[in-house]
C-alpha cells in the first residue's frame, strides 16, 4: 500500500517521499507501528475508536486527533488536522483499538480537548506543505548563524515548519539553560512565523538525524526506541565488558542504550555466584577475585604477587570460604583445567577452495616437469626411429652428395631443396633458347623414392655444420642425366607466348603471364 506522498506532483511527475515506496515495510516512517488488529472485524454493537494517531515529518513527531468527520481512514493516507492558528498535514499512522494502547503508553487521556481531524489532504494542501518543507534546510542554516552571532551556547538540530507556514518549531540541544528571549524576536522578524523553541536530549537528536550503529543496523532511537533510560558503567561491569569509552559510546556521545538490553539476564545468572568471596585465604597467600564467567560458572582468582589466574568452580569457592570462617587455610586452590573445545572437523566433500593458496613456485615446478617429460618422450621416439630405419637404408645408395638431411622437415621443403641441389653452377648451366617450341619438352625425370632422395640418415652429431651446407655451392650429381634444352611452346591464339626454361616448380606459376624472352644474338660459346 503506497502513501499519498508517492503520488504525482504538480507537473505530473512522481513526487515521492524519497524512500522508494517502502511504506508497507516502514521505510516512510521512522517509528512505524504495525496494526495487527486491522483484519479482525468488530462486532456490530461496537463502534470503531474515533481517535487516530498521526505522524509528522516522517515519523519524528506523533500526535493524537479525534475523527469528527466519521470517515474511514486507512494507514498511509495524508490528512489535514488542526494546528496552531491554522492547519497541518500529516500521515495516518494507526487506527482502531491499538490507539488506546498507544495513548495509555504515552499517558494521554481521552478528553474533549483533543484536537480534531479536519479532512483528507487536498492537492492545494499538499502543494503548500511541499513549499514550506523546502524552506526548512535554508531556515536551519540561517538560524544557526543567528544563534552563533548572539553568542548562545546551543546547537540547533532540526527546524519543522507547519504545513500552512504560520508556525516554526526549532529543536535544539544545550548543556545549560539558554536565555533565548532575544533570539525568538530575531527569528520572528526574520522568518515571519510564530516561533517555538523545544529542547531535546542528545539521544533524541541522534534519532532525528539517524545513522548506522556499530552493529551494522539502523539506530534503535531512529526506528523503534522512544523511552530513553539512563545507562551507567555498572551495566558494563556486570557484563564483564572493558570500560572503554570509545567502544561503549554511541552516535550521540552517550553510553549505548543496548547495554541495558541483556542486563537483566546477567543479573539473574549472577544470583548463583557468592557475594562475599572477593578475597579468599590459602596457605600460599590471599587470592583476589578477578572476574566471573557466567557461561562456564567459573570464578577466576590470582595471588597478589603473581599475574597468573586460577579458575575455580562455584562449589570449590564456597568450600574455601567455609574453611576460612573456621580459621582453616587450604594448601591449594585446586584450579580447574579449562579446555577450549575445538569445533568438529567438517566432512570432506571432495573439493577444496584453494583460491589464493597456490604459490607460483608450485606452478613453475609442474610446468618444468611437463617439459622434461615431453623432452624424454621425443628422445625415445627419435631413438626408436633410428633403430628401425638403419637396416632398411644400409643397402641403398646415398643421394645428394652425402648431405645429411633432417627427418622433421616437411615434404615440400625437402623437394625444394632437392631441386635446388640439381641446379648446376653458373658456368655449366645451359643457355635457354626462346625460339624452341615448348611442345617438344621431354617428360621430367621420374621421381625416385623418398629414401633415395634423402639418403641415409645420420644422427645429429655427424651432420655437417650449417655454414658448410648453406655457404658452399652444391656439386652436380654424378648419376643425374643432363637435361636437353626445352623448346618454347607456340603461343596460343589471343594469348601471350610463355617463357621456356627449366624453372623449379616453386617459381613456375609466376612466369606464365610474362612476355617471351628475346633470343640472344650472341653465339653460344658456353654450351
TrEMBL record:
Superkingdom: Bacteria
Comp. bias regions, Low complexity: 388-397
InterPro entries associated with the record: PSP1-like, PSP1_C
Region feature Disordered, mapped onto this chain: 364-527
Biased amino acid composition, Basic residues: 505-516
GO cellular component, one term: cytoplasm
Bias kind Basic and acidic residues: ranges: 375-387, 404-495, 517-527
Domain (PSP1 C-terminal) ranges: 115-200
NCBIfam families: RicT_YaaT_fam
Protein name, entry field: PSP1 C-terminal domain-containing protein
Organism: Chitinophaga lutea
Taxonomic placement: Bacteria, Pseudomonadati, Bacteroidota, Chitinophagia, Chitinophagales
Amino acid at each position: 500500500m503506497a502513501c499519498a506522498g508517492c503520488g504525482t506532483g504538480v507537473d505530473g511527475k512522481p513526487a515521492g517521499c524519497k524512500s522508494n515506496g517502502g511504506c508497507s515495510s516502514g521505510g516512510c516512517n521512522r517509528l512505524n507501528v504495525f496494526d495487527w488488529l486491522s483484519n479482525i472485524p468488530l462486532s456490530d454493537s461496537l463502534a470503531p475508536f474515533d481517535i487516530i494517531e498521526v505522524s509528522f515529518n516522517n515519523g519524528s513527531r506523533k500526535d493524537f486527533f479525534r475523527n469528527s468527520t466519521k470517515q474511514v481512514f486507512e494507514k498511509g493516507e495524508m490528512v489535514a488536522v488542526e494546528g496552531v492558528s491554522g492547519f497541518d498535514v500529516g500521515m495516518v499512522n494507526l487506527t482502531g483499538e491499538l490507539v488506546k494502547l498507544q495513548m495509555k503508553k504515552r499517558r494521554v487521556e481521552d478528553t474533549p480537548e483533543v484536537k480534531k481531524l479536519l479532512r483528507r489532504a487536498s492537492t492545494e494542501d499538499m502543494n503548500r506543505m511541499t513549499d514550506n518543507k523546502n524552506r526548512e534546510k535554508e531556515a536551519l542554516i540561517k538560524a544557526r548563524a543567528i544563534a552563533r552571532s548572539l553568542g548562545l551556547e546551543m546547537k540547533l538540530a532540526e527546524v519543522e515548519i507547519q504545513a500552512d507556514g504560520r508556525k516554526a518549531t526549532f529543536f535544539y540541544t544545550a548543556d545549560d539553560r539558554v536565555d533565548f528571549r532575544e533570539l525568538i524576536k530575531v527569528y520572528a522578524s526574520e522568518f515571519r512565523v510564530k516561533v517555538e523553541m523545544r529542547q531535546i536530549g542528545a539521544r533524541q537528536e541522534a534519532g532525528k538525524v539517524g545513522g548506522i550503529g556499530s552493529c551494522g543496523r539502523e539506530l534503535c532511537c531512529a526506528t523503534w526506541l522512544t523511552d530513553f533510560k539512563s545507562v551507567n558503567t555498572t551495566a558494563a561491569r556486570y557484563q564483564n565488558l572493558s570500560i572503554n569509552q570509545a567502544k561503549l559510546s554511541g552516535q550521540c556521545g552517550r553510553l549505548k542504550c543496548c547495554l541495558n538490553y541483556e542486563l537483566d539476564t546477567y543479573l539473574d545468572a549472577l544470583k548463583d555466584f557468592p557475594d562475599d568471596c572477593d578475597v579468599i585465604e590459602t596457605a600460599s597467600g590471599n587470592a583476589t577475585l578477578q572476574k566471573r564467567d557466567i557461561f562456564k560458572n567459573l570464578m577466576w582468582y590470582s595471588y597478589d604477587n603473581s599475574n597468573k589466574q586460577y579458575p575455580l568452580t562455584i562449589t570449590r569457592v564456597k568450600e574455601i570460604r567455609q574453611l576460612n570462617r573456621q580459621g582453616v587455610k587450604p594448601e591449594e586452590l585446586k584450579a580447574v583445567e579449562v579446555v577450549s573445545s575445538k569445533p568438529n572437523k567438517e566432512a570432506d566433500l571432495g573439493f577444496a577452495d584453494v583460491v589464493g593458496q597456490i604459490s607460483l613456485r608450485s606452478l613453475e615446478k609442474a610446468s618444468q616437469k611437463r617439459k622434461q617429460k615431453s623432452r624424454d618422450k621425443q628422445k625415445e621416439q627419435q631413438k626408436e626411429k633410428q633403430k628401425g630405419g638403419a637396416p632398411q637404408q644400409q643397402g641403398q645408395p646415398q643421394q645428394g652428395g652425402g648431405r645429411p638431411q633432417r627427418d622433421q622437415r616437411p615434404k615440400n621443403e625437402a623437394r625444394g631443396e632437392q631441386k635446388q641441389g640439381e641446379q648446376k653452377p653458373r658456368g655449366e648451366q645451359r643457355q635457354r633458347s626462346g625460339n624452341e617450341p615448348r611442345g617438344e619438352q621431354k617428360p621430367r625425370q621420374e621421381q625416385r623414392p623418398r629414401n633415395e632422395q634423402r639418403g641415409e640418415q645420420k644422427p645429429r652429431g655427424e651432420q655437417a655444420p650449417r655454414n658448410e651446407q648453406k655457404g658452399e655451392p652444391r656439386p652436380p650429381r654424378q648419376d643425374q642425366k643432363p637435361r636437353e634444352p626445352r623448346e618454347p611452346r607456340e603461343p596460343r591464339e589471343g594469348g601471350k607466348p610463355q617463357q621456356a626454361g627449366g624453372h623449379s616448380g616453386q617459381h613456375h606459376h609466376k612466369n606464365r603471364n610474362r612476355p617471351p624472352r628475346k633470343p640472344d644474338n650472341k653465339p653460344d660459346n658456353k654450351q
